[in-house]
Amino acid sequence: xxxxxxxxxxxxxxxxxxxxxxxxxxxxxxxxxxxxxxxxxxxxxxxxxxxxxxxxxxxxxxxxxxxxxxxxxxxxxxxxxxxxxxxxxxxxxxxxxxxxxxxxxxxxxxxxxxxxxxxxxxxxxxxxxxxxxxxxxxxxxxxxxxxxxxxxxxxxxxxxxxxxxxxxxxxxxxxxxxxxxxxxxxxxxxxxxxxxxxxxxxxxx
Amino acid sequence: xxxxxxxxxxxxxxxxxxxxxxxxxxxxxxxxxxxxxxxxxxxxxxxxxxxxxxxxxxxxxxxxxxxxxxxxxxxxxxxxxxxxxxxxxxxxxxxxxxxxxxxxxxxxxxxxxxxxxxxxxxxxxxxxxxxxxxxxxxxxxxxxxxxxxxxxxxxxxxxxxxxxxxxxxxxxxxxxxxxxxxxxxxxxxxxxxxxxxxxxxxxxxxxxx
Lengths: 205, 209
Hints:
The complex is a heterodimer.
Chain A: H1 6-15, E1 19-25, E2 28-33, H2 38-47, E3 55-62, E4 71-79, E5 84-92, E6 99-101, H3 110-121, E7 124-126, H4 158-167, H5 170-173, H6 176-179, H7 190-197
Chain B: H1 30-39, E1 44-48, H2 51-60, E2 83-87, H3 95-104, E3 110-114, H4 115-120, E4 141-143, H5 150-165, H6 189-195
Parallel strand pairs in B: 1-2, 2-3, 3-4
């Protein structure tokens, strides 16, 4: 397929000028949306019956080597029923604060994906319920490693990096309680709750 | 008392000569005996983070079988371990974890740094990776390779056994703990920087600033 996905035209029809441009790259359709309408556009793509992009494959960001080019936040969508993909992007001017609205309310799986994008690029997802670092430890102070102005070996000396790493207390942030399935019990799918009640895991009688 | 009097009648002083091949007596140095026991019953604490851990598993499994060298039991608790084997790269995020495990291991204890990444950071000369675990804990044997084959690791284990057999129980400095000091490091800061310096191909990484 080398032509635009029909979703691009439908999105332009529904959102008009908020869709800045769309293009095809390596047979994938990319749609650029204005930042202030991106949450509406993603919600529309998820819920409109002809679109039903019900699966959020990935949230990430791209920074180009050319310092003039804006940083892009990327949402890769998939419609499981229609077997169709769509990539939605927002271009962020690097001179302004890097902020986009969260889509955790649309796809729960966006939680950790947005945390990762925040951790690596410093993009703030406004409205995110728990925007913390997820790959680097929480007290990491050197910045956002995947930004182009970040030196490969980091900002600090190796001794300082080692000192800060050894001073981190992992158990303060990653306790067994946080990982406990018992706390999340009521949010589990029904069939899993029943299996656990029958004692397949033993500790939730 | 029913005991048989073994003193020969022609030895009135009761001094019995003990043959060097007597089944009842062995004379040896205490150091030799201790080191022999320690070197041949090393319980490893595996700290596997990457592909080296796969080679470590192969070393422990039936084909290479480190139980032949006294490593009968894999100790997944640091309290019952003698040798920490760091098999794989160590990110800064895991530095406090391996340090804690090392501090939890009782003396006598040794450590093996398995593979290029654990020994020097390897190909990962970047912001996230410890440039050699010897900046975090003391290391006894470095095993080169990327990853080392099981033969390589076994050679490292044999070297450690040889090192242990040269130790003396009278030497307290061998059993001294090297804790993280007030500086937040267990080595002087200059030493950590020196150990972490780029070498080989990563010297010409000009984008590293």
